[in-house]
Design goal:
- 76% of the residues lie in helices and 0% in strands.
- Helix 17 packs antiparallel against helix 21.
- By secondary structure, it is an all-alpha fold.
Length: 500
């Protein structure tokens, strides 16, 4: 049986009450869902030593606790987006949240390495269903310009700060409770999401009366993205020239090329080419990927510096990132409510990328004796403000004026861009930092602080590369995004969920 369809609003309904209390509650539910997904990508990182000690697996296997989630999540995103269009977004959101809760319970009670990796893979699978359903509900719920910028500002703030919150939460739960709570906390959050989404989000019929899954497209997209993410993951440990890395990356490129050919020829493609041919949307996907590369670089090497050089604990490292999170949230809300309606996305996002470049450049001046307040805090505040300018407008642009039938696919591409960007950024920048550290140790005489100085040198080189990545993001936005403010939708077809 199909769900009852939300009726379309009468003209002016949304503008008459631009941001009613029900809209706020729906935004809260969807933002909480996005937070659950994003923080779960990092919440286990800090807990890994405790997990390894408890379950007794090798250091070589430790990466799979994180990689299992990332691989399955990234590989199945496009299929998840298509399923949300085919079966109904609310239905997928509820089913995927339920599955995510069960997978978290399985991981929380894991009695061995295999059981935990299986649970993390299942979390990635249900997360890949949940992420595009959540973002497409944002796209189809908030369509009026007076509400859309504000809503995506809040949503973007939550999404961009989730990784740092995951580090903080993981450190606190591991230190004061047990690593298992890093997974079991999802049960409480998921139950709240289930109850609130059931009550607040209107049901919808599938967008197509006779939907068909594009199986060749699904297989090639899943295997192609999986191969790319896996290749980047192995590069971090084995190097970019290892046969496994090169083979995985080559297979990923070939499979995704085959996927594009299939999409141009089938009647109901997994990813309609019209989604990416739009100039602004295509630019938004690139911007999200580039921002993902740089953001994870900042997180990774600042965390290294705080723990390895300054001697911070895992929990204090998470606390140290709080100013960045706060500046992200504040700037994202200001961006959505004040800046975006007046300037349009291009100027805002260019400014965001340049701010992140300036903030990251400040980190290149760190030394073994640099303190937190004077040398790290200013860069955190500036970089966080830059991220707050980027993510909300980019997600808004990526789903703007999208046909409801394509909302799931467009939303999946946003998440896929973030995931691939994070995988490339972590692997590429870590390889550069390790190489620079090794070269420093071989070319400088041994001294009492040689290891710390070498670590700082490696991080500095990686920070400069990250600065270049952010400048590339500014150039991409300036060249591809059309100037001016976004246009109102030409019809009310995509406002089916706005009449709340």
């Amino acid at each position: 049986m199909s769900e009852p369809t939300a009726t379309a609003p009468t003209p002016g309904t949304e503008s008459a009450s631009p941001f009613g209390s029900r809209h706020w509650w729906i935004l809260t539910v969807l933002s909480l869902t996005q937070l659950l997904l994003v923080l779960d990508s990092t919440v286990m990182n800090v807990a890994l030593p405790s997990v390894q000690s408890d379950l007794g697996f090798s250091s070589a296997d430790r990466q799979w606790i994180v990689t299992a989630y990332a691989l399955v999540f990234g590989g199945t995103l496009l299929a998840g987006g298509r399923l949300s269009d085919m079966l109904g977004r609310k239905r997928i959101l509820l089913a995927a949240t339920s599955g995510f809760i069960l997978a978290s319970v399985l991981g929380g009670f894991a009695n061995g390495f295999g059981m935990l990796v299986t649970a993390r893979g299942l979390q990635g699978f249900f997360g890949a269903l949940l992420a595009p359903a959540t973002l497409s509900l944002m796209a189809t719920t908030f369509t009026d310009r007076s509400t859309r910028g504000k809503a995506f500002g809040v949503f973007g703030a939550v999404s961009s700060s989730g990784a740092a919150i995951g580090l903080l939460l993981g450190g606190a739960l591991t230190q004061y409770l047990d690593w298992r709570w890093c997974l079991l906390v999802n049960v409480a959050v998921g139950m709240v999401i289930l109850a609130a989404a059931t009550a607040l989000i209107p049901a919808q019929d599938p967008v197509s009366p006779r939907p068909r899954m594009d199986l060749p497209g699904m297989i090639t997209s899943v295997l192609g993205i999986l191969a790319l993410v896996y290749g980047c993951s192995t590069a971090e440990h084995d190097g970019w020239t290892s046969p496994v890395t090169l083979g995985s990356l080559a297979a990923g490129v070939l499979l995704l090329g085959l996927f594009a050919l299939i999409q141009a020829r089938v009647s109901q493609p997994l990813l309609p080419m019209r989604v990416v041919r739009d100039r602004n949307r295509g630019a938004a996907y690139l911007m999200v990927a580039i921002a993902g590369i740089g953001m994870f670089g900042v997180f990774l090497f600042l965390a290294y510096h705080l723990q390895q050089v300054l001697g911070f604990s895992a929990l204090m490292t998470g606390v140290a990132f709080l100013p960045m999170v706060i500046s992200m949230v504040v700037m994202a809300i200001v961006t959505g409510g004040v800046l975006l309606p007046h300037t349009g996305p291009r100027a805002v996002v260019i400014g965001g990328f340049l701010l992140t470049a300036v903030g990251t450049a400040l980190f290149t001046g760190l030394s073994v004796h640099s303190g937190y307040a004077a040398s790290i805090l200013p860069g955190l505040l500036i970089t966080g403000s830059g991220f707050g300018l980027i993510f909300g407008p980019a997600m808004n642009l990526a789903t703007d004026r999208i046909d409801p039938a394509d909302a799931g696919a467009a939303s999946a591409l946003v998440n896929a861009g973030q995931q691939i960007g994070a995988a490339i950024g972590t692997a590429l920048l870590n390889t550069i930092a390790v190489s620079a550290t090794t070269n420093y140790l071989t070319t400088h005489p041994k001294a009492p602080e040689a290891a710390a100085r070498a670590s700082v040198h490696g991080n500095t080189v990686a920070f400069w590369v990250t600065v270049a990545v952010f400048v590339l993001g500014a150039l991409t936005c300036g060249l591809l995004v059309r100037p001016g403010r976004q246009q109102e939708p030409e019809s009310d077809d995509s406002t089916a969920l706005a009449a709340i």
